[in-house]
Structures
1.
Amino acid sequence: MSSPSPALHLLEHVFGYRAFRGEQAAIVEQVAAGGDALVLMPTGGGKSLCYQVPALLREGCGVVVSPLIALMQDQVDALKELGVAAAFLNSTLEMDAAREVERAFVAGELKLLYVAPERLVTPRFLSLLARARLALFAIDEAHCVSAWGHDFRPEYLQLSVLADGFPGVPRIALTATADHATRQDIITRLRLETARQFVSSFDRPNLRYTIVEKKSAREQLLSFIRREHEGDSGIIYCLSRKKVEDTAAWLRTQEIKALPYHAGMEAEARARNQQIFIRDEGVVMVATIAFGMGIDKPDVRFVAHLDLPKSIENYYQETGRAGRDGQPADAWLAYGLNDVMLLTEMIEGSGSAEEQKAVERAKLSAMLGLCEATGCRRIAILGYFGEQTQPCGNCDNCLNPPKLIDHSESARKALSCVFRTGNRFGVGHLVDVLQGKQSPKVKEFCHDRVSTFGIGKDVDEATWRAIYRQLLARGALRLKLEGHGGLELTDAARAFLRGDAPLSLRARTEKFHYRGERGGE
Ligand code: ADP
Ligand code: ZN
């Protein structure tokens, strides 16, 4: 047998692994040979080795840009353990310690140096770079360069200096956020037009996706757990701390071992709950999204969302915490229109720049589109990440294809009612008008005199709400934010009004009773 390649030899003798995974071998080969690379790989896919191995294969030191200070420390500790000369430079270091790292770097004593982005772009560090021998630049969490990413960092924009100042040094950018807009941004802003792209599949075939409409969310959740996951470990995500507390307490009254976790709890109680979740079997963690980063529990059998995630990336990351062991696991989500309104208010009230808000709105609307999808969920999720696939046979829509009923005519009535009442009212009121109800608000605004009053008596309230949601998801309506959930028509409404765009809904097997639930689901 021929001797193994230097890369494989290193992988085995330094890192203790027998073989590269997926695209790792090709990426290592590209970068070790001095080429640039853009790596899109889901979390846990093994991105670190993609720059660590080439850094060790090449002469000089690999400089790794990372915004995550805590992870830097972990990585460096792990590398030192393996006998690799590694260090980091960030704000946690005392001046003396930082000077010593700088000295070792320039003296060629290091093989890997992790640097926070704001430090890398200082004149001081750039002059060190000019004096050191460089194996490569690795730009981790590269989506931080993009306003489309969920974690924009302005300092990342300055990383283009690496392309200009060090043309001979290979650069590898890595991220687990792969939607098309982010990817394009990374390429142009980091000057990676000629880099080879390595796109791993983001599919998690063992996850079964189910998205249901909220009726009474708690009961739906409970019956899901009882039916599918009695005694299993799981995570339930809620938007607010209060809902986390309430839901955990309520589940305990239902004999489910549920614990709360959110950033408002005492650090000690939080750590205790996390430890119980990781150690014991069958614990259900009810949490805000603060929970889960860096938690590696392989046998989480389900992730449930009681509130709508704000983007498909968030949904993907959060559901991705289920079934790490490769065994079947469930991703279950209940959503309602009130969620959309709440999230929209959060976006509008965030004080972010207008450009940022526009991005967030678009992301939310894509998420809603996923919820409303009548086809394979996996096709929709992976499609969002630019990946094509076949109907999966392992999502609610594949397993129970929804029966569709044409509602194009009702959609026209719904839109026309928005128009006749002045492009400013919320769904509750619009439905009252359509159904010809003499509510106080209808009387106040004399909406019993508009032409759409009472033209929708033949359709029940739940169906009207679903029609409005679809119209929102398809962009024919948008939420008016100053107006507490008021809706207005967009240009896209024309196609529906003209009859050029059909609209169908799932046939319902049961009637929902929204009346009593007004003002909160
Ligand atoms: P990412 O940064 O993509 O989230 P990591 O680089 O942290 O992923 O790797 C995830 C896990 O997979 C780590 O525990 C790592 O040791 C392991 N791993 C990566 N590549 C391999 C491989 N070729 N063989 C075995 N384990 C690997
Ligand atoms: Zn499917």
Note: The pocket of adenosine-5'-diphosphate (ligand 1) is lined by residues 17, 20-21, 24, 41, 43-49 (CB under 6 Å).
2.
Amino acid sequence: CRVRQYTFNVVLKNTNRLCASKPIVTVNGRFPGPTLYVREDDTVLVRVVNHVKYNVSIHWHGIRQLRTGWSDGPAYITQCPIQTGQSYLYNFTVTGQRGTLLWHAHVLWLRATVHGAIVILPKRGVPYPFPKPHKEVVVILGEWWKSDVEAVINQALSSGLAPNVSDAHTINGHPGPVSNCPSQGGFSLQVEAGKTYLLRIINAALNEELFFKIAGHQLSVVEVDAVYTKPFKIDTLVIAPGQTTNALITADQSSGKYLMAASPFMDSPIAVDNLTATATLHYSGTLASSPTSLTSPPPPNATAVANKFVNSLRSLNSKKYPAKVPLTVDHSLFITVGLGINPCATCVAGNGSRAVASMNNVTFVMPTTAILQAHYFNISGVYTTDFPANPPVAFNYTGSPANLQTTNGTKVYRVPYNSTVQVVLQDTGIIATENHPVHLHGFNFFAVGKGLGNYNPKTDPQNFNLIDPVERNTIGVPSGGWTAIRFLADNPGVWFMHCHLEVHTTWGLKMAFLVDNGKGPNQSIIPPPSDLPKC
Ligand code: C2O
């Protein structure tokens, strides 16, 4: 293993999309940002230098960060953000992971344009558990706003209303030709007939779960969230913000051009957004002028298409890559996730109310000092440890909505080192029918069960898959249903858990786990680096 060094200069860059140019916040002037290439067991050093007027922090989404919470990145959770003109060295080791992840800004809405791929190759000499592809290609799905993204969310917060939806979806930074800008090109993937390619697909969109498909070609899924899966073939993937999927595609046609499409799944009825991003798969030797074989994206409410994909996911669970599912549970939490409305005296457009979101009716309030620092240095008054293991009123999906109004707090849930945790995430579905892709920092978890309606603690666990459930870091809590996850709390520190739809995070759909140090060697948080930013 070796040390990989990168420098991320956070700079403004004029960028042209949808036939208009605007300055956006980027890493090294690129959108999407540079790919981090590492191997399992490598140490990664990334110096992030902030040259913009916003505070910045970068999260290495899905990297375990064993004992290195100082490098995890969520602003005010594990670090204070890097202020204008300052820099910070992220320093972590990639342990026991291989596949595709993403890095992204983790402060304000900067993630919209500040994101990129993390490619983790297996250790040298260790093959993939699937046929070696001819080439590997990163495919990043995203969103584009014509106006300044920070202005979009600030306006929403002051009015109390939902923010404007994006003006386009993107594939590797490009929407492809659209009606109000037909001349713009899109991403083109060049292939040779008969060869197999590994697509490393990432959803870096802020607020949109997306379908992804390619005309005339099947996708063979081999990995999600940097964990190998049992391979399966499918036409259409569904991928939530923060999730990654590796899929093999064989160029089994002889020639031609084929459309690639990314389109929204389960749009909120409040903010309808049907835009499809397109790109092309282009066989070498095919004339540029030849027609493109089209594909029709699934409609936004194509739940059956999404379920087909989600229900096919299983851990590889081979001898070499066993699924280490916790079989017993030390801490059992039942957490409602949903949207609500709180009073707001200044929200004129919102008629005196504002949209909020919560977990167990707690709307998380960002502290002004990082919680990990407060924990490590014993600073009091920053957070409390009373995050409730259950909602204040027993949730009943068919009953009257009990959790429209929420209380504010910076509450964490404390667990001892190496305890096992089960969390059942129950969608309340009261205001909007949307999946909530919930992301846990610092751990992978096993998605042991899911269902529709109310979770039943007596009967539902009997159907849990404790053999080969998919292992990942971000899971869609189904609209009007629940999902159950289990993880081993083997990573001391403070670990954020939140909805990866940025608008819901902003509204407060977030909490954190505090995992205490253990007693043995290598069971404690490492000391903070000397350049750790100050608040
Ligand atoms: Cu990818 Cu806390 O986020």
Note: The longest strand covers residues 3-17.
3.
Amino acid sequence: MTPITHIDDLRRLARKRVPRMFYDYADSGSWTESTYRANEADFQAIKFRQRVAINMEGRSTRTTMVGQEVAMPVALAPTGLTGMQHADGEILAARAARKFGVPFTLSTMSICSIEDVAEQAGAGFWFQLYVMRDRAFIERLIARAKAAGCTALVLTLDLQILGQRHKDIKNGLSTPPRPTLANLLDIATKPRWALGMLATRRRQFGNIVGHVSGVEDMGSLSEWTASQFDPTLDWDAVRWIRRLWDGKLILKGILDPEDARLALEVGADALIVSNHGGRQLDGAESSIRALPAIVDAVRDRIEVHLDGGVRSGQDLLRARALGARGCYIGRPFLYGLGALGEAGVTRCLEILHKELDVTMALCGQTRIDRVGRDILLPGSYPGS
Ligand code: FNR
């Protein structure tokens, strides 16, 4: 096998190994996918200042995110159905993240449950919450996350209603999945994936099935979830969750400075500048373009994180320079997982770390904590 040196190598390998309906689920955005594309492309437009003859020994990418030490300013983003990219995907990704020293965030819509991940990969991961109409279920879910030792709650605010994704509809990716004949034939050509799935009993949404009365299988689950994403979610609901959860609270899906100020007012510890990886409001601004105005609006009173389009260590450094304390990666780790399981997630993190370290050095920087806007070329980044 040719060496894997780049995130795109993992993407190509995942595409070969993961059944099309699940690969497409990860590698797509809503409607025209313009925001999905802009998330990546807008990073490329931001240029570094090349500096020379500066002692670059003793570099460190270590920092903190919501007070937690991290080996580099990265966390794994919450992604639904991760256990369909690879059998036991959430457990494998959580293990890889723990060994590398970065946080893993478990989605409400994961295949492996909170308890599975805590038992198999160890406590201390973060948990992502979707607000459902069934508030008693939310209270129980928060209590389960607490009992499992989750240290931060990531509350997603940009999915009260689902942005339409053409590929999922065409592939029959619904709950329960209704794959097309072409997709079933495609699964038959991915024996490594299929054998892995046969070897694990976990193929349902473990955080939900068996934890809501009457929801015992994929059929009853589909009826329940269809009615559960809560269109009435508002800042009062966020305040209610702030009262229920005494750990670190991170609000995900902020793209507007006005919403950033509201996030500050409800007492969150951090906010994530995010458009859900271009999967929700198609036509919204890319995350990296939205970042500077949000950083300026909250002025150090709350940690600002970012996700969307981060594909390299260079992107991590660009975001950090523009004020993001840390970035979450979604597709990059999913590609690693689909390509090579746990080893692929580790490879993804190694690639990002190496790129971050070398780019810092070539910009004349030795400490991630000292990086600021001055490492970027004026005129190449938003707000300059
Ligand atoms: C997501 N995302 C997401 N977000 C969330 O809060 N809960 C979830 O269950 C999911 N599910 C999900 C599935 C898949 C397949 C993807 C790709 C994304 C959004 C995710 O947390 C993050 O915002 C984006 O993935 C970041 O963009 P990149 O890194 O994928 O470009």
Note: The chain has one domain: 7-369.
